[in-house]
Amino acid sequence: MQGNNLPSPPQVISLYQSNNINSMRIYNPDQPTLQALRGSNIQLILGVPNSDLQSLSDPSTALSWVQNNVFNFPDVSFRYIAVGNEVDPANGDPSQFVLSAMQNIYNAISSAGLQGQIGVSTAIAFSLLGQSFPPSQGSFRGDVTQYIDPIIGFLVQTNSPLLANIYPYFSYSGDPTDISLEYASFTSPSVVVTDGPYEYQNLFDAMLDALYVAIEGAGGWSLGVVVSESGWPSDGGFAATLDNEFTYNSNLIQHVNGGTPRRPNGPIETYLFAMFDENNKSPELEKHFGQFYPDGQPKFQLNFGAGRAWDVYAQNNTSVYRESISSV
Protein backbone atom coordinates (compact mmCIF):
# COMPACT_ATOMS: atom_id res chain seq x y z
CA MET A 1 0.00 0.00 0.00
CA GLN A 2 3.02 2.32 0.13
CA GLY A 3 2.88 3.61 -3.40
CA ASN A 4 1.26 6.49 -5.26
CA ASN A 5 0.26 4.42 -8.28
CA LEU A 6 -1.45 1.37 -6.80
CA PRO A 7 -4.95 0.07 -7.58
CA SER A 8 -7.92 0.74 -5.33
CA PRO A 9 -8.99 -1.84 -2.72
CA PRO A 10 -11.89 -3.16 -4.87
CA GLN A 11 -9.49 -3.54 -7.80
CA VAL A 12 -7.03 -5.41 -5.57
CA ILE A 13 -9.77 -7.79 -4.42
CA SER A 14 -10.64 -8.48 -8.06
CA LEU A 15 -6.98 -9.15 -8.80
CA TYR A 16 -6.79 -11.62 -5.90
CA GLN A 17 -9.88 -13.43 -7.08
CA SER A 18 -8.79 -13.63 -10.72
CA ASN A 19 -5.50 -15.19 -9.60
CA ASN A 20 -7.04 -17.67 -7.12
CA ILE A 21 -5.39 -15.89 -4.20
CA ASN A 22 -7.39 -16.78 -1.13
CA SER A 23 -5.65 -15.04 1.80
CA MET A 24 -4.52 -11.51 2.57
CA ARG A 25 -2.53 -9.74 5.24
CA ILE A 26 -2.97 -6.07 6.06
CA TYR A 27 -0.92 -4.28 8.67
CA ASN A 28 -3.56 -2.00 10.07
CA PRO A 29 -7.37 -1.96 9.95
CA ASP A 30 -7.66 0.08 6.77
CA GLN A 31 -11.39 0.67 6.47
CA PRO A 32 -11.67 0.82 2.64
CA THR A 33 -9.81 -2.50 2.45
CA LEU A 34 -12.08 -4.11 5.05
CA GLN A 35 -15.11 -2.83 3.15
CA ALA A 36 -13.76 -4.27 -0.10
CA LEU A 37 -13.20 -7.65 1.56
CA ARG A 38 -16.86 -8.04 2.54
CA GLY A 39 -18.30 -11.23 1.11
CA SER A 40 -15.08 -12.10 -0.72
CA ASN A 41 -14.24 -15.22 1.36
CA ILE A 42 -10.59 -14.10 1.33
CA GLN A 43 -9.08 -15.10 4.67
CA LEU A 44 -7.46 -12.18 6.44
CA ILE A 45 -4.57 -11.59 8.81
CA LEU A 46 -5.46 -8.25 10.36
CA GLY A 47 -2.57 -6.32 11.87
CA VAL A 48 -2.45 -4.11 14.94
CA PRO A 49 0.11 -1.35 14.25
CA ASN A 50 2.94 -1.10 16.75
CA SER A 51 1.84 2.46 17.45
CA ASP A 52 -1.47 1.13 18.87
CA LEU A 53 -0.01 -1.42 21.28
CA GLN A 54 0.10 0.82 24.32
CA SER A 55 -3.51 1.95 23.98
CA LEU A 56 -4.71 -1.63 23.51
CA SER A 57 -3.17 -2.64 26.82
CA ASP A 58 -6.36 -1.09 28.21
CA PRO A 59 -9.18 -3.69 28.04
CA SER A 60 -11.93 -1.22 27.12
CA THR A 61 -9.87 0.26 24.29
CA ALA A 62 -9.11 -3.24 23.00
CA LEU A 63 -12.82 -4.10 23.06
CA SER A 64 -13.64 -0.96 21.07
CA TRP A 65 -10.87 -1.78 18.57
CA VAL A 66 -12.23 -5.28 18.04
CA GLN A 67 -15.79 -3.95 17.75
CA ASN A 68 -14.81 -1.36 15.13
CA ASN A 69 -12.49 -3.54 13.07
CA VAL A 70 -13.73 -7.12 13.51
CA PHE A 71 -17.31 -7.33 14.82
CA ASN A 72 -18.45 -4.57 12.45
CA PHE A 73 -17.37 -6.77 9.52
CA PRO A 74 -19.15 -10.09 10.11
CA ASP A 75 -18.88 -10.94 6.41
CA VAL A 76 -15.06 -10.70 6.39
CA SER A 77 -13.18 -13.96 7.01
CA PHE A 78 -10.72 -13.09 9.78
CA ARG A 79 -8.06 -15.75 10.30
CA TYR A 80 -5.57 -14.13 12.69
CA ILE A 81 -5.09 -10.84 14.49
CA ALA A 82 -1.37 -9.99 14.38
CA VAL A 83 -0.74 -7.82 17.43
CA GLY A 84 2.37 -5.90 16.41
CA ASN A 85 4.93 -6.62 13.69
CA GLU A 86 8.62 -7.31 14.33
CA VAL A 87 8.56 -5.76 17.79
CA ASP A 88 12.08 -5.84 19.27
CA PRO A 89 12.90 -4.48 22.73
CA ALA A 90 16.41 -3.59 21.53
CA ASN A 91 14.96 -1.19 18.97
CA GLY A 92 12.98 0.79 21.53
CA ASP A 93 9.71 -0.79 20.40
CA PRO A 94 6.81 -0.88 22.90
CA SER A 95 7.43 -4.54 23.71
CA GLN A 96 6.07 -4.21 27.25
CA PHE A 97 2.55 -3.79 25.85
CA VAL A 98 2.43 -6.66 23.35
CA LEU A 99 1.30 -9.44 25.68
CA SER A 100 -1.36 -7.38 27.45
CA ALA A 101 -2.68 -6.16 24.08
CA MET A 102 -2.83 -9.76 22.86
CA GLN A 103 -4.66 -10.85 26.00
CA ASN A 104 -7.17 -8.02 25.77
CA ILE A 105 -7.90 -8.61 22.10
CA TYR A 106 -8.26 -12.34 22.76
CA ASN A 107 -10.69 -11.64 25.60
CA ALA A 108 -12.68 -9.28 23.39
CA ILE A 109 -12.93 -11.92 20.66
CA SER A 110 -13.87 -14.53 23.26
CA SER A 111 -16.69 -12.31 24.52
CA ALA A 112 -18.39 -12.91 21.17
CA GLY A 113 -17.71 -16.64 21.24
CA LEU A 114 -15.16 -16.39 18.44
CA GLN A 115 -12.18 -17.86 20.27
CA GLY A 116 -10.87 -20.78 18.25
CA GLN A 117 -12.17 -19.17 15.06
CA ILE A 118 -9.84 -16.14 15.05
CA GLY A 119 -6.29 -16.64 16.30
CA VAL A 120 -4.53 -13.88 18.22
CA SER A 121 -0.75 -13.75 17.78
CA THR A 122 2.16 -11.44 16.97
CA ALA A 123 4.62 -11.45 14.07
CA ILE A 124 8.28 -11.67 15.07
CA ALA A 125 11.45 -10.97 13.14
CA PHE A 126 13.99 -13.77 12.76
CA SER A 127 16.53 -11.41 14.32
CA LEU A 128 15.08 -12.23 17.75
CA LEU A 129 17.17 -15.38 17.55
CA GLY A 130 20.62 -15.05 19.04
CA GLN A 131 21.82 -18.34 17.55
CA SER A 132 20.44 -20.08 14.49
CA PHE A 133 23.33 -22.27 13.28
CA PRO A 134 23.34 -25.15 13.46
CA PRO A 135 19.54 -25.30 13.66
CA SER A 136 19.69 -27.67 16.64
CA GLN A 137 21.24 -24.82 18.65
CA GLY A 138 18.51 -22.31 17.83
CA SER A 139 17.79 -19.95 20.73
CA PHE A 140 16.37 -16.52 21.36
CA ARG A 141 18.64 -13.63 22.29
CA GLY A 142 19.18 -13.24 26.00
CA ASP A 143 17.77 -9.72 25.96
CA VAL A 144 14.41 -10.83 24.54
CA THR A 145 13.61 -13.93 26.60
CA GLN A 146 11.59 -11.96 29.16
CA TYR A 147 9.58 -10.55 26.24
CA ILE A 148 9.06 -13.64 24.11
CA ASP A 149 8.72 -16.44 26.69
CA PRO A 150 5.37 -15.21 28.15
CA ILE A 151 4.04 -14.67 24.62
CA ILE A 152 4.90 -18.27 23.74
CA GLY A 153 3.12 -19.40 26.90
CA PHE A 154 0.03 -17.42 25.93
CA LEU A 155 0.02 -18.88 22.42
CA VAL A 156 0.31 -22.43 23.76
CA GLN A 157 -2.56 -21.73 26.17
CA THR A 158 -4.81 -20.32 23.44
CA ASN A 159 -3.72 -22.79 20.74
CA SER A 160 -2.68 -20.05 18.32
CA PRO A 161 0.47 -20.20 16.15
CA LEU A 162 3.39 -17.81 16.34
CA LEU A 163 3.77 -15.65 13.23
CA ALA A 164 7.35 -15.23 11.98
CA ASN A 165 8.90 -13.26 9.12
CA ILE A 166 11.63 -15.41 7.54
CA TYR A 167 13.87 -14.13 4.72
CA PRO A 168 16.67 -16.35 3.44
CA TYR A 169 17.48 -13.48 1.08
CA PHE A 170 18.75 -11.25 3.88
CA SER A 171 20.80 -14.05 5.43
CA TYR A 172 22.34 -14.78 2.04
CA SER A 173 22.98 -11.17 1.03
CA GLY A 174 24.58 -10.55 4.42
CA ASP A 175 26.98 -13.49 4.12
CA PRO A 176 27.36 -14.63 0.49
CA THR A 177 30.78 -16.14 1.28
CA ASP A 178 29.37 -18.80 3.60
CA ILE A 179 25.86 -19.07 2.14
CA SER A 180 25.38 -19.98 -1.51
CA LEU A 181 22.67 -18.63 -3.78
CA GLU A 182 21.57 -22.19 -4.50
CA TYR A 183 21.12 -22.96 -0.79
CA ALA A 184 19.13 -19.74 -0.30
CA SER A 185 16.88 -20.20 -3.35
CA PHE A 186 15.94 -23.90 -3.08
CA THR A 187 18.12 -24.89 -6.04
CA SER A 188 20.95 -26.78 -4.35
CA PRO A 189 21.27 -30.23 -5.96
CA SER A 190 22.35 -31.89 -2.72
CA VAL A 191 22.45 -31.59 1.06
CA VAL A 192 24.41 -28.55 2.25
CA VAL A 193 24.15 -28.76 6.05
CA THR A 194 24.05 -31.89 8.18
CA ASP A 195 22.95 -31.33 11.77
CA GLY A 196 22.85 -34.63 13.63
CA PRO A 197 20.12 -36.73 11.99
CA TYR A 198 18.75 -33.74 10.07
CA GLU A 199 19.88 -32.81 6.56
CA TYR A 200 19.27 -29.41 4.99
CA GLN A 201 19.17 -28.71 1.28
CA ASN A 202 17.79 -25.18 1.64
CA LEU A 203 18.20 -22.26 4.03
CA PHE A 204 14.47 -21.73 4.58
CA ASP A 205 14.16 -25.09 6.35
CA ALA A 206 17.27 -24.44 8.41
CA MET A 207 15.97 -21.06 9.58
CA LEU A 208 12.52 -22.39 10.38
CA ASP A 209 13.91 -25.37 12.29
CA ALA A 210 16.20 -23.07 14.29
CA LEU A 211 13.09 -21.11 15.25
CA TYR A 212 11.26 -24.31 16.22
CA VAL A 213 14.18 -25.28 18.50
CA ALA A 214 14.19 -21.82 20.08
CA ILE A 215 10.44 -22.00 20.68
CA GLU A 216 10.76 -25.47 22.20
CA GLY A 217 13.47 -24.15 24.50
CA ALA A 218 10.95 -21.57 25.71
CA GLY A 219 8.35 -24.23 26.46
CA GLY A 220 6.48 -24.13 23.16
CA TRP A 221 6.76 -27.79 22.21
CA SER A 222 3.26 -27.86 20.75
CA LEU A 223 3.42 -24.42 19.15
CA GLY A 224 3.00 -24.07 15.40
CA VAL A 225 4.56 -21.35 13.24
CA VAL A 226 2.97 -19.43 10.38
CA VAL A 227 5.56 -17.84 8.09
CA SER A 228 3.93 -14.44 7.87
CA GLU A 229 6.46 -12.98 5.41
CA SER A 230 9.00 -14.38 2.98
CA GLY A 231 10.20 -13.15 -0.38
CA TRP A 232 13.02 -11.93 -2.60
CA PRO A 233 13.55 -8.53 -4.27
CA SER A 234 13.86 -8.13 -8.03
CA ASP A 235 16.05 -5.00 -8.00
CA GLY A 236 17.84 -2.50 -5.78
CA GLY A 237 20.40 -4.69 -4.05
CA PHE A 238 22.81 -7.61 -4.06
CA ALA A 239 21.46 -10.61 -6.04
CA ALA A 240 18.16 -8.76 -6.42
CA THR A 241 17.08 -9.80 -9.91
CA LEU A 242 13.79 -10.75 -11.50
CA ASP A 243 15.11 -14.25 -12.20
CA ASN A 244 16.16 -14.76 -8.58
CA GLU A 245 12.83 -13.47 -7.29
CA PHE A 246 10.91 -15.83 -9.55
CA THR A 247 13.16 -18.77 -8.66
CA TYR A 248 12.80 -18.23 -4.92
CA ASN A 249 9.09 -17.54 -4.89
CA SER A 250 8.07 -20.34 -7.24
CA ASN A 251 10.22 -22.84 -5.35
CA LEU A 252 8.88 -21.60 -2.02
CA ILE A 253 5.30 -22.18 -3.17
CA GLN A 254 6.13 -25.76 -4.08
CA HIS A 255 8.30 -26.41 -1.03
CA VAL A 256 5.85 -25.42 1.70
CA ASN A 257 3.49 -28.21 0.72
CA GLY A 258 5.77 -30.31 2.90
CA GLY A 259 7.43 -29.67 6.23
CA THR A 260 10.96 -29.23 7.54
CA PRO A 261 13.42 -31.93 8.61
CA ARG A 262 12.41 -31.46 12.26
CA ARG A 263 8.70 -31.12 11.56
CA PRO A 264 8.12 -33.04 8.33
CA ASN A 265 4.35 -33.11 8.47
CA GLY A 266 3.46 -30.06 6.41
CA PRO A 267 2.10 -28.00 4.86
CA ILE A 268 3.60 -24.78 6.21
CA GLU A 269 1.22 -21.83 6.06
CA THR A 270 3.37 -19.19 4.37
CA TYR A 271 2.80 -15.64 3.16
CA LEU A 272 4.79 -14.42 0.20
CA PHE A 273 5.93 -10.81 0.37
CA ALA A 274 4.68 -8.75 -1.44
CA MET A 275 1.63 -8.12 -3.60
CA PHE A 276 2.92 -5.03 -5.46
CA ASP A 277 6.14 -3.17 -6.08
CA GLU A 278 5.80 0.02 -4.01
CA ASN A 279 7.51 3.18 -5.21
CA ASN A 280 7.21 5.15 -1.95
CA LYS A 281 9.24 2.71 0.12
CA SER A 282 12.89 3.06 1.03
CA PRO A 283 15.64 2.03 0.70
CA GLU A 284 15.52 1.16 -2.99
CA LEU A 285 15.57 -2.58 -2.32
CA GLU A 286 12.23 -2.37 -0.49
CA LYS A 287 10.47 -1.08 -3.60
CA HIS A 288 10.92 -4.35 -5.50
CA PHE A 289 9.38 -7.27 -3.58
CA GLY A 290 6.08 -7.35 -5.48
CA GLN A 291 4.61 -10.21 -7.44
CA PHE A 292 2.63 -7.70 -9.50
CA TYR A 293 3.41 -4.35 -11.05
CA PRO A 294 1.18 -1.47 -9.92
CA ASP A 295 -0.93 -1.79 -13.07
CA GLY A 296 -1.90 -5.31 -12.01
CA GLN A 297 0.32 -7.13 -14.50
CA PRO A 298 2.29 -10.03 -13.02
CA LYS A 299 6.08 -9.69 -12.91
CA PHE A 300 6.20 -13.42 -13.68
CA GLN A 301 3.80 -16.34 -13.69
CA LEU A 302 3.19 -18.02 -10.34
CA ASN A 303 0.56 -20.70 -9.87
CA PHE A 304 -1.62 -19.64 -6.96
CA GLY A 305 -4.51 -21.87 -7.93
CA ALA A 306 -4.62 -25.26 -9.61
CA GLY A 307 -6.59 -26.74 -6.74
CA ARG A 308 -4.25 -25.42 -4.05
CA ALA A 309 -4.77 -22.64 -1.58
CA TRP A 310 -1.98 -20.32 -2.69
CA ASP A 311 -2.81 -17.02 -1.11
CA VAL A 312 -1.62 -13.42 -1.22
CA TYR A 313 -1.56 -10.66 1.30
CA ALA A 314 -1.70 -6.94 0.95
CA GLN A 315 -0.20 -5.20 3.85
CA ASN A 316 -0.66 -1.87 5.45
CA ASN A 317 1.18 -0.33 8.35
CA THR A 318 1.31 3.36 9.09
CA SER A 319 5.04 3.16 9.75
CA VAL A 320 6.18 0.21 7.62
CA TYR A 321 4.02 -0.82 4.70
CA ARG A 322 4.53 -4.20 3.11
CA GLU A 323 2.55 -6.70 1.14
CA SER A 324 2.71 -10.41 0.58
CA ILE A 325 1.40 -13.54 -0.92
CA SER A 326 0.68 -16.67 0.97
CA SER A 327 0.97 -20.34 0.24
CA VAL A 328 -1.30 -22.94 1.78
From TrEMBL:
The keyword Secreted does not apply. Keywords: Glycosidase, Hydrolase. GO terms for biological process: carbohydrate metabolic process. One of its GO terms (molecular function) is hydrolase activity, hydrolyzing O-glycosyl compounds. PANTHER family: GLUCAN ENDO-1,3-BETA-GLUCOSIDASE BG1-RELATED-RELATED. Belongs to the glycosyl hydrolase 17 family. This is Glucan endo-1,3-beta-D-glucosidase.
